[in-house]
Model the fold of this input.
Amino acid sequence: MTKGSSSMGKKSGKDVHIRCRRCGRASYHKIDGICSSCGYGKTAKLRKYTWQKFEKRPNNRGGK
Ligand SMILES: [Zn+2]
Done:
């Protein structure tokens, strides 16, 4: 893929991704049936990677 608007022509207003019932994000691909965010429809486990910062605990405050 090139930079710019070369592939933007396919954006015809159709919403390809709908809300995922597992992660709640609009990343569930209608046609493929796979959530690009959590992998719903593809894997039973949550799609996550080690380099991905997953919200483990929100209390990051306090001290160094
Ligand atoms: Zn999902």
